[in-house]
Amino acid sequence: MRARVFPDYEAMSAAAADVVRRRLGERPSSVFMLPTGITPLGMYRRLVEMHRSEGLSFAEATFFNLDEYLGLAPDHGASYHVYMKENFYGLIDADPARVFVPDGAAPDPDAECERYEAAIRESGGIDVGVLGIGRNGHIGFNEPGSSFDSRTRVVALSESTRQVNAADFEADRAPEQAITVGMATIFESRKVLLLASGTNKAGAVAAAVEGDVSESVPASMLRSHPSAVLFLDEDAASDLGQGVAG
Ligand code: PGA
Known about the structure:
globular; single chain; 7-stranded parallel sheet; binds 2-phosphoglycolic acid; alpha/beta
């Protein structure tokens, strides 16, 4: 797993958007897996800008989101459906038939997970998986302890994740469960790009890059991935030792 350190969030976001643009240039029908959260907003902003100013087209690409809260209808203001529509899919020329977000309101959540996993398989697999990282090292909603063999499934959110995300919900009550793409599914992405910004991610980044490869730090799984790269700003890299060059 390589790490690249950028001077700040804007530079990191620009580099991440360039990875997506390059991949689309090579193969317009590429399959992407995409994250939500605060970290990727700069990348989405740039990609939308490239669409508007250069005509960068996403019309042939396929998109899978990493996760969704369980129990939220797709039109719930805090759902990742709404987040993605407002920040990305609704602002570009994505083909709705090739945009996938887990349905948190599915009557049979386990069946929804199987359907989602099958859709990823049928798409030919993920070409580029873009990830954030939680302060506890989670990727998607794969919390510490998630098996590296896991597939798309219903998971319980950790108390720390619920606290970080509480502000998005009335009375600060974040849902207790979510659907997340599994660890093995993430690992099968042909390329993985993990984005981290800010000092509050520095501990998780250092544990993932320099600690033991362990299910207690989900992102550490990427150490054995043949093509995983971390894009960090200087703050997120601030707990790393000397071995990581910019
Ligand atoms: P953030 O979320 O980008 O909002 O920090 C990342 C994550 O929890 O995976």
